[in-house]
Amino acid sequence: VQLQASGGGLVQPGGSLRLSCIASGFTLAGSAIGWFRQAPGKEREGFSCISSLGKYIYYGDSVKGRFTISRDNAKNTVFLEMNSLKPEDTAVYYCATISRCSAFSSNSHGVNWGQGTQVTVSS
To answer: Is 29 helix (H, G, I), strand (E, B) or coil?
Structure first.
């Protein structure tokens, strides 16, 4: 079971990025997926998730209205569209399988983790 987050980079405030979480070694369609991030000096926080079939979605207050999570099970991939990025969004972003999206919160834990991708928002 392996997940890989990609698509990070350096972007100016107000800019956009699209992250991908690609699964290998298992079928992503059977798993709820959470996105987490960890900023320097801070604890890792969960901020978004999507249920296995995409029917339930959660966003934390810090990203609500700016980020959009989606999935393409045929491509074994979950996406995170990030718009109106702010300097405080700077962090390493991770995806992970989670037990249930309906019970997800900022303190939730992932089960199988992917390698993170760095997002830096700076002018």
So the answer is: helix
- Any idea of the CA torsion for 94, 97, 98, 99, to the nearest 10 degrees? -170
Could you tell me the strand order of the sheet in which 32-38 lies?
Answer: 9-11, 117-121, 91-98, 32-38, 45-50, 57-59
CA dihedral sign, ordered 18, 24, 26, 27: positive
Q: What is the pLDDT along the chain (123 residues), one digit of tens a residue?
A: 789 999 999 999 999 999 999 988 888 888 999 999 999 999 999 999 999 999 999 999 999 999 999 999 999 999 999 999 999 999 999 999 999 999 998 888 898 988 999 999 999
* Amino acid found at 23: A
99: helix, coil or strand? Answer: coil
What tokens does 93 get?
């972003």
User: Residues with Cβ < 8 Å from 73, sequence gap 6 or more?
Assistant: 27, 28, 29, 53, 54
The amino acid at 95: C
Residue 99 to residue 93: CA distance in whole angstroms: 19
